[in-house]
Design brief:
Layout: H1 5-19, H2 28-34, H3 39-51, E1 55-58, E2 64-67, H4 76-84, H5 93-96, H6 111-127, H7 130-138, H8 143-148
Antiparallel strand pairs: 1-2
């Protein structure tokens, strides 16, 4: 259970674009500088985000990138899927394609736990928008933290 650098940087890029929403497009070089990331890497991520329909590229002198829709309509789950294909790969998912064999198929007592965890992570990431992240960065103790407070006592 690890957040990859692709997901982290793509989310950072999207938050930067959310801050600029409704204004001029942001150049890829400026995004790379603001996140201290190699320009080639940023361009690769922006290409994936554009292919997923999350950003729009603008050509010309005032060109750059902008969000394709308001920040409230873009979830971090959508960002993760755009750059990685999945938000969270459950333990059992790697065996479903038939590439590997699990010795516990058909009688695994913990697979429901991994499926539930995967569902929780997926739902949480879908519930958090770029607008939520912007609000959270402006004020402490917001909705993102409160979401985890709804877990049963002693479980978080």
């Amino acid at each position: 259970m690890k957040i990859t650098s692709s997901i982290e940087y793509a989310t950072r890029l999207m938050v930067a674009l959310a801050r600029a929403y409704g204004r001029r497009p942001v150049r890829a070089e400026r995004l790379a500088d603001s996140e201290s990331a190699p320009a080639d890497y940023v361009n690769q991520l922006l290409l994936r985000l554009r292919r997923a329909g999350l950003v729009v590229s603008h050509r010309g002198t005032g060109g750059g990138y902008s969000l394709s829709r308001p920040p409230a309509e873009v979830s971090i789950g959508a960002v993760a899927r755009a750059v990685q294909g999945r938000v969270f790969e459950g333990v059992c998912k790697k065996y479903e394609a038939g590439e590997k064999d699990c010795r516990h198929q058909g009688g695994c007592s913990i697979s429901p736990v991994w499926r539930r965890l995967s569902d929780l992570v997926e739902r949480y990431c879908e519930s958090v928008s770029l607008a939520d992240i912007l609000r959270e960065s402006d004020a402490s103790g917001g909705r993102l933290v409160a979401t985890f407070d709804t877990l049963p006592a002693g479980k978080n």
